[in-house]
Fold each of these.
Amino acid sequence: MTGAQAVLESLKREGVDVVFGLPGGVLLPLYDAIYQSDIRHILVRHEQGAAHMADGYARATGKVGVCIATSGPGATNLVTGIANAYMDSVPMVAITGQVNTWLIGKDAFQEADITGITLPITKHNYLLRSAKDITRVFREAFFIARTGRPGPVLIDLPRDVTVDEVEFTWPEVELSGYRPSFKAHEMQIKKAAKALMEAERPVIYVGGGVKYARAERELFDLAVKISAPVTTTLMGVGCFPEDHPLSLGMLGMHGTKYANYAIQESDLILAIGARFDDRVTGKIASFAPRAKIVHIDVDPAEVGKNVRVDIPVVGDAKNAMQGLLKEIKAKGRSDWNDKTDGWKKDYPLRYIPDMNIIKPQYVIEKLCEIAPDAIITTEVGQNQMWAAQFFVHKDPQKFISSGGLGTMGYGFPAAIGAKIGRPECDVIDVAGDGSFLMNSQELATAVVNEIAVKVAVLNNGCLGMVRQWQELFFEKRYSATILGRTSPDFVKLAEAYGAVGLRATKPSEVEPVIRAAMAVDRPVIMDFIVSPAEKVSPMVPAGATLSEILELEWCDADQHCHLEKIYAQGRKEILGQEGF
Amino acid sequence: MSQKMTGAQAVLESLKREGVDVVFGLPGGG
């Protein structure tokens, strides 16, 4: 068969049923093979959309997502999507076309050194030089993408390699230099169990690693067995049911007050599949000052990267927790649980409701009420934080967000990918008017393929998160963040693409608009005209300790004074000096 | 001639001295 046919046969054997891509000159032979294959191909309108769709598909299904782009600009348009998958450990295989092998390095038409460009943002990448390597490389790529700490693998495919004839074989994977850790060391498990038993104020801090290990059950059993409160990162949202009494919700910069207080007061943190990101820890020198830290992670490079770890446990989260469950004895409720419960009662997530203007948080609450089992994807910024805070999450495959890279324009194509992977689920992209426009061209993809995703645009007329920082730390100098009503009419935009557009301008219209959108089996954009001044709260200002978390809308005079001090501190951190 | 300013101000001053009169961009977080 031809190289192109060998690629398709390899994809089939790896269980791929859908690929997201856009053709181009050097991909003509591959696309000719796609035309004759039964693998579903979703034609995107921009390659960044293909990468995010493959990413959303992977996060919603646990399978490896596949995207395809042509050489040169096609390949470079994938870069943001690959970096996004790399930061959030998403299993993905990206296939790029490349110029003929004899033209590589000659500045040929549409040539880009994509293996060089993506070296720091892929788990591994390949430049194929011969058709006989195709099957081995594809097997290895899928193996590397899905094992250990998952991540994106790129295969660069020169045109002539896809044309050459090759004998199809399906070799076993033999990678002598790649041995992903799986089984946690027994002695470390015992040490971790002993520390857990001795702790009086434990907190379990959960990241995306629990989701990728499909270890939610073990996490639940572990937390309940020792009555330990659980907080999650943005990537870990949904790993532990947020309506459970032991749930502390999300921690960090825009986490709950009670999660941050619990972390700061704890005497033991059991970190599982999390990486102590700067948005989580706040000021690192004063992070959890009295806590012993146990860190379970499949990637040994994460241990000790950001914080000092007392007991490292390198291995798969599910395997390690199964080991822990055997070693620990049940522990009932303690004073610590009373304390965290008290914080939950005293400092709930809240906002000031309004009868006349739509509060963005209210939209999220209504979405949760009407579609509690929907897959929620997000863009990045305020919309993302409100979606994390005000929707009650219970399933990690149903909250899909760009955590590490923070890619605006991610949520909509990710929603399309998620819906293709899980067609039985409602899928809603929570968006902003700024971020939605960054990949709105994929409306065409959704309409032509009848992918009935719903978009809730929280339309506040500004780049809200940056505007929020400018309000707090830059004396309201709104440099380049006010969009006003210069965005397109989103209802007309939807209609122009053949989708459905709905608008709500006052609170009483929110529920009817959501119900109407959910009732339609077509792509819908809901345009919610929301309060432009609303800020994401609470907030740990840059450079502050987690316990210095503040509610931005609820300050009394005393707290306001404190707030001013914190802002000054924030300005100092950001600008490296006092004020301006 | 020297003057105390922030790095950001120094960037803007440099652009000005290079004769730049327009830039194209989009802001981001902190």
Amino acid sequence: MSQLGGACLILALGVCVYGIGASIYGVRTGQTQWSESGRRSVYALAGILTVAFAVLELAFLRNDFSFNTVADTSSTTTPTFYKAAAVWSSQEGSLLLWAWLLSLWSTLVLFLTRKRMRDVSAYATAILLGFGGFFIALMVFYANPFGTTDPAPAEGVGLDPLLRHPSMMIHPPMLYSGYTLCIVPLAFGMGALLARKVDAEWIKATRRFAMAAWLFLGIGIMLGARWSYSELGWGGYWGWDAVENASLMPWLTATAFIHSLMIQEKRGMLKVWNVSLVLATGTLAIMGTFLVRSGILSSIHAFGGQTLGVPFVILIGVLILSSIYLVSSRRDMLRSEHRLDSLLSRESIFLANNIVLVGLCFVIFWGTYFPLISEALTGHEASVGPPWFDRYTVPLALILVLLSGIGPVIAWRRATFANARRNFVIPLSFALATLAVLLAAGVADSKPFALAMFCCAAFVLGSVGQEYWRGVRVRRAIAGEPAPLALMALVKRNRRRYGGYVVHIGIAVLFVGVAASSSFQHASELSLSPGQSTKVGAYTVRYVRPTASVTPKYDPVHTGSTLSLGAVLDVTKQGKHVTTLTPAEDFYDSGEPAQGSVAHLIGGQPVSQVGIDGGIKRDIWSAIAPNIDTPRLKRIIEIGNKTIPLVRPDEGMIAVAVMAREYMRSPPPAEFHLIVSPLVMWIWIGGAIVACGALIALWPAPSAVRARVSVRARSRAARRLARA
Amino acid sequence: MSVLVAMLTLMLLAAVMAVVSRPLLVARKPDESDTPKRSELEAEREAKYREIRDAELDYRTGKLSQEDYEAVNGALRAEAVEILNKLESSEADEVTKDDRTSEEDRGAEEDRATDPAK
């Protein structure tokens, strides 16, 4: 079947080349049948890549180790769920996933716009196929997912144990969906510039795709943070890692675009800014993929090799240069149709919000690429750490949250100071009440940024709450509906506005969680023997006893580990039992027989199974690093290596079981990492609220089901409007 | 390459060629797509309607004073009327063009009927 997969790739590359040529020829000569043929090439591409992806997926599920990709990232002992998802853990598989997702989204957008924007969509088709062709060419010439080895190895290396986590399996498709969706507005933005049709229509056609990109990227980022928190064993959810930052940057520019596109839709303003944001978002999405796949910056999330660096750098260079050329050569037609009516208007707040978001993106860009910049300038690779990022991003995040509370209470076009004053009373009361309560409780007086964030979040809750309350009141006055029905009708009629407000609440809640958990955290890293205890914040943690299990058959979390060593921790507060934690560390088969018949069974990268007691007030987080380098345990491994043949892994597992029993009989001291953080749960709740709000805003409005209005009906409407 | 794989590849190639070449082989139907001008105007109209609704909601929820609302609303409605008028004349142009085309077609048919040599 590998031959079928390979043939699919060649065919897909041919389709891309043909489609690009047909689309450009069609739009240049005005022969629409060629543009139509080009558009259909995208549909064909989606079909071919679906077959190719199915071939690779089947190879993983059937343990077909003749495929190099399968042998490198899967094994017979890898649980089925992880086998199915291991496709995108490899360089080759993830490139295929990227191209496949892009072809699906491209098909969707080109189908939806098949009767509109003929010229723009023909250029967009060529650009989308260009991106598809680039990724397919990478697979054909550099990283073929259908490469084979003959004879096939009997066993594969297995999936990287770090990736054996449910959220890590959904995280890459989410992130890649976000990245590929970012390409859709980029293609239409470039298409609009090439076709010299830069009105709001291309924005209207791709707005939902930009929002979907934003949503998918956001979900991907949150899942990555959750994985980091519960799998990596360092106790954090965000470490300003290069790959984390790479996914955050396009999300920030997409957030800016989602706000500023409303100004172009409504007022015909900010055309240069919007098209630049779209081009920047698409380019940053490609740079995000480049960072993960090129291995150019060291990161715990970087899974690629160095081979793809040069083609990606060329693509990014072409994107940046062509963006600059297109925007500068079309600047005359990108002039705003209107000017700002007033500095006190929602347009101004959106502009301020855009500047802050782009400023945040610039700070993160500088910090992320600083190692490359410093190496280029000085010859030494220097990097900046979390304190550097915090110094600049925390104040900007504060302003951003504050603006997300101010925006909803300011009117479009113009607002008067008298009205603004009246609208700020409730949000300001919320913020001041929060400030008073926190100062009185003495909770946050030593943490000014956290205190400011809590007050800003209260301001947002007050302003959005007021908006909902007033909207429902208006609706009740007009339609006489009961409050719940009025609320539903209000949201239904104004999904973008009220869905957006829900997103603002979610962001405020999320930042409260971030501020509280990072400012008021208690952490301890120490060595404990069974029976010993330590204080972490207000809690006492006692190491009750060790745990050990030999787990290929009884692996409780189905990650395929061979040995799991852990601890039972009793957590008390003022003498009262609070919870019991059971952190563990899982050991995996390294797949390298040279280590020895027993040593290789536990010689893979160990992975933490974090013990967490999460709650809405606080999380108690624990990780263990058991010591298996004791003379007794080493002796068991040595004897096993000498006496058990490699071909008898079942006997090797008996030696591992003896090790586990010995560990239980005389447990050595273990290293523990214990953290008590308040309000971590609110980060995940905030993320879920953001996703719900985005879904509300994305859901098609009933008015989207448009009927063609006759000339007479339009005349009637015009007369009515003129009379009103 | 096994026979099965070769057959599957050929089938895929045939399917791709059928999908891609269809617009080039099938006789062109009359163009059903929106004219660029009209779709641009329709996008503008939708945006203007949304603006009018937003201004009304802003007024009713106390974000705009009566005076400001009247000024904004008046301006918005005038802009909407302008768009609707443009839309109307663009559609009227299309209808005239269609009528002219069908009249020409009819004339040609009549000519053919009276003079089969044509």
